[in-house]
Amino acid sequence: MNAPISVRDVAAHAGVSVGTVSNVMNRPDIVAASTRDRVNASIKALGFVRNESARQLRAGRSRMIGLIVLDVANPFFTDVARGVEDEVGKSGLAVLLCNSDDQLSRENGYLDLLEENRVQGILITPVADDRHRLAELQARGTPVILVDSRSPGGGQCSVSVDDVLGGDIAVTHLLETGHERIAFAGGPASLRQVADRREGALRALARAGVGPAELMIFETPALNVAAGKAAGSAIADTRPVDRPTAVFCGNDLVALGLLQEMTERKIKVPADIAIVGCDDIDFAAAAAVPLSSVRQPRQLIGRTAAQLLLEEAMGLDGHQHRQVIFEPELEVRRSSQGGPGSRARRGRSPAAVQASAARG
Q1: If pLDDT is split at 50, 70 and 90, which confidence band does 170 have?
Q2: Are the beta carbons of 344 and 199 closer than 8 angstroms?
Q3: What is the C-alpha to C-alpha distance for residues 218 and 235, in angstroms, rounded to an integer?
Q4: Nearest CA-CA partner of 305 in 87, 25, 14
Q5: Are residues 88 and 65 in contact, defined by beta-carbon separation less than 8 angstroms?
Q6: Tens digits of per-residue pLDDT, 68-86?
Q7: Which phi and psi (to 5°) does residue 56 adopt?
Q8: Is the dihedral of CA 252, 256, 262, 267 positive or negative?
């Protein structure tokens, strides 16, 4: 293999000093136009590519930020990443996307890698609630922003959605349409998003005078289509007299898997069972039976998190950690437009208004 073309090679070809080549690349305004043109012509003729990693090492920081998500296959995180990329691209930075796959060991490995590469900062949806590792990164000078998660002690900026409200408006909608046997499908329960959505479901039931034991739980090991199909199988195997007539799912992938299983089992949606998902990914509206879902502003979450990171990384005076919380809305589609006493309608459910008022 041929050795890479160096700055010295460019300088020799152009008949100038190494310092002049460096100025052309980094401070072209101080170099005479004729010299600048000669150096650029040599760069093009030789096929020179600058060693950006070496430049960044001298500067102490790279031109990248890290984004660690729980599941890169989940369209929710794809949309969040798009929002991040749109925002940081304005500052000439790039996004390094990392998939923890909901595994703490992988998350820690990526945190080590990103810190070693001196990224401008890290956006992360953490696997667990232990913030000690993130605090260590911050203490060593790497900004950390929580995405789709909250900072319990306010030690980091965070951007999240009120998932308790999301669960509330979903189950309130199902109660409004006359359902009494309601289930929650999702997991693992250790995920804050899952726990909050289930808490919201219980809050809606309590407001209707229904005890927590009445919420049937079908916990899944993950929030994906396969887990949703497995939950659907368990529901389908339940005696019809005991089977829930409505299911609120931990996210849209679980809901889509459940919908697939119901279709395969000849259980009609929504006539036999109503389904509501969460996140409102693009696939929700495109499903064979369009899926009702709790909508989250996915790209806005990413853009807002990126803005907070850039603000902190630039060291702006007076920067204070902020906790940004968006409110979800319910998009009612055909998957829940049915069942006993249905009063659902397309668009924002009246349940959303009622739950927001109750939340105060």
Answers
A1: very high
A2: no
A3: 8
A4: 87
A5: yes
A6: 999 999 999 999 999 999 9
A7: -65, -35
A8: positive
pLDDT tens per residue, range 177-186: 999 999 999 9
Written as six digits, the tokens of 21 are 């080549």
pLDDT reading at 87 higher than 50 = yes
Distance in Å from the first CA to the final CA of the chain = 68
For the chain, what is the HEC assignment? CCCCCCHHHHHHHHCCCHHHHHHHHHCHHHCCHHHHHHHHHHHHHHCCCCCHHHHHHHHCCCCEEEEEECCCCCHHHHHHHHHHHHHHHCCCCEEEEEECCCCHHHHHHHHHHHHHCCCCCEEECCCCCCCHHHHHHHHCCCCEEEECCCCCCCCCEEEEECHHHHHHHHHHHHHHCCCCCEEEEECCCCCHHHHHHHHHHHHHHHHCCCCHHHCEEEECCCCCHHHHHHHHHHHHCCCCCCCCCEEEECCHHHHHHHHHHHHHCCCCCCCCCEEEEEECCHHHHHCCCCCEEEECCHHHHHHHHHHHHHHHHCCCCCCCCCEEEECCEEEECHHHCCCCCCCCCCEECHHHHHHHHHHC
Contact residues for 261 (Cβ-Cβ < 8 A; gap 6+): 228, 229, 231, 232, 233, 235, 236
Determine how many CB atoms are found less than 10 A away from the CB of residue 78.
Answer: 18
The string of pLDDT tens digits covering residues 102-157 is 899 999 999 999 998 889 999 999 988 777 889 999 988 899 999 999 887 778 99
Distance CA 258, CA 252 (A): 10
What's the whole-number mean pLDDT along residues 266-291? 96
Per-residue pLDDT, 52: 59
| Cβ neighbour number for residue 347 with a 10 Å cutoff | 12
